[in-house]
Design brief:
Largest sheet: 6 strands, antiparallel
CATH superfamily of the largest domain: Glycosyl hydrolase domain, family 43
CATH class of the largest domain: Mainly Beta
CATH architecture of the largest domain: 5 Propeller
Number of helices: 9
Helix content: 10-25%
Oligomer: single chain
Amino acid sequence: MIISINLNKCLNQIMSNITVKKPIVEINKTKIFRDMSRVITRINLPGNISRIPKIFERVQRINEKEAALLLQNVNENFSGRHKNVDDIFINNFNIISEYFTLKNVISNTKKLLIGAYFTMEYSIESAALFNPSIIPHPDQTGVEAGNLRFILSLRATGEGHISSIVFRTGILNENGTFLLDNLSKFVETPKISNDKYYDSHLFQLKLKDMKTWSDRTARVFEMLPLKFSLLELKASIESLHLNLKERGNDEEIKNILWLANSNYFIKFNEKNEISERVIFPVSDNESRGIEDARFVRFQEDNGEITYYATYTAYNGITILPHLLATKDFLNFDIITLNGKAVQNKGMALFPRKIRGKYAMLSRQDGENNRIMFSDHLHFWQESIIIEEPTMPWELFQIGNCGSPIETSEGWLVLTHGVGPMRQYSIGAILLDLENPVKIIARLHEPLLKPNENERDGYVPNVVYSCGSLVHKDSLIIPYAVSDLSSGIAYVKLKNLLSIMKSNN
């Protein structure tokens, strides 16, 4: 079913008297709710790996006829929920067979059945669907003049509070109609590329930034070409280990491999819809989730377009900022961010360079809005405070709600503020186009705050966004509702800018 909202029917009025205790903007809203039927498959390993051969032997003892009936029952229950379910079972069989030596030939039926025993479903949206960002779709083929095809990214959270990135698509029409495309019932995880080539110079810089550099680590790279693969890296490490004098501190080797495994490529099946794609945690750094992706359409000086997203990788103990890069939403490059200025959440990249440098909003201290500049996209060392909490609704802490939006009046930045009873509201500031360290206008009242219908959820009293866009004369704001579902709000851009400037 296509969801349609007519923007012409919701005239967003800015209140002329900002001192009255009413919302500054009256906004029409729609909600996007979680769908617990959207499931992926994951390998189902026992807590104690030594149990794998025992489980394998139990299934092996089932006679072929009974095995065929069991497999038939599994297929009847699950083949309609996943594409190519046999491939999933065989892949998981191959994974668990690495834990022991196969003594006899196994029938294909038994391989599939054993694979099924070591497979589980995971409902990616069972707990929440929230913290959205919106960007123009890279493919505008067939879209009527004045309309815009878009991609909406969302943070999906399932069992165990593991977060991943999911997508929706739709059309913003010139006549004010907002259309969400049909949502596929299938979900797929990507293939992980093992043939990634690393830049030796950048890799060494990252190790030095991690304080993991010594004569011994330098020896690893002496034997590597300027562009090297993971296999070449492991071969170089092995050659050092063969020389007992070079064993040294294995923590150094662990850090080298940790960094290599934290930077990888993923690729989706191009035949599947974008709404079927889910970026699920892969590396150890992401084992407890991928949080709050802030997507932005970035334009290089030569006009080349890349879609970037900053996100927080979480392993249950520490966080590690990452950068995701794609041109087509099929192929993604996952890169670690480095430097003392990227040690907290809430990084938001500007959509172009400013005075020859990359620029990014941040919040290193967990309290203030900051900005930082860099010559290299992967390295960020220094930050500057541009905004401290000043309004009653944000005195606890502030942060950004996604990448800045370039307007003729300045860089429009949506912010979030935390007030009494941990209530999150969305505000706005305007930064100077040439000198974004300078705030030239701001809202003194929240643009959005939780209403009575939005207060309850997994984390109550929260509205939050990870990225908005301007289409024609409207600012389109996707936002999270108490970490449970998501909504979409609209406001006339010229009215918003007008009230912001009048505040100053």
